Amino acid sequence: MGGIIIKIARLAKLFIYAFILSLILGCSSVNTENDSELASFSQLTVISDSDVEAIYEKAWEAFSWFTLTTIPYLETEEVTDFGITFERPVWTEVRENWSGTRVVHETINTMEALRAYLDTFFTNNVTEYLLSFERFIEHDGNLYTIVADRGTNMFAGDELHEIIRVSANEIVYRVSVDMYDSFPDEPESKIVDVEVSDFHLVYENESWRFSNFHLVR
To answer: What's this model's pTM, rounded to 2 decimal places?
Structure first.
């Protein structure tokens, strides 16, 4: 009888040792998975905060060519009107009811080059949205644009920019703009709201690009 009890005790110890070993191996597996995920994250986010800011600035410039200002263009002419002399774009009628002036840019001289440039900073949905404005047309081997500039929100004040690393392939670039009840530089003006915009910078096809974008002012 005593021998049976000893055997049972030994078996119990073996089960306990096996259980403890399984826990150790399980923890080791979890740590390995976490280390692998962290390694993946570090490989994808070799992009620094300064690089993220640079992408935002270039994206902002490209987006502004469609909704705020005009890409650099070549031809201007001197005109005098009501005693005031100024320069204005030289318009070329590219097609019926569409006149523009020739684009001057180091790398953008065709629609294909323009699309490729936009695709550097934006995902396809943003690129297609911008091209739908039809502010650019290719004609006789050159790229033309409509010259059209606008002002910005006069009640917009300081901007706060934040970089939020969400995951291995997504960064949120957050811009908060102070909105005033009058011109920000007036002594009595007060902040009445803060407009917050989150722009999602996603990693796909081995590059970081914004999947949504707009101008904050």
So the answer is: 0.72
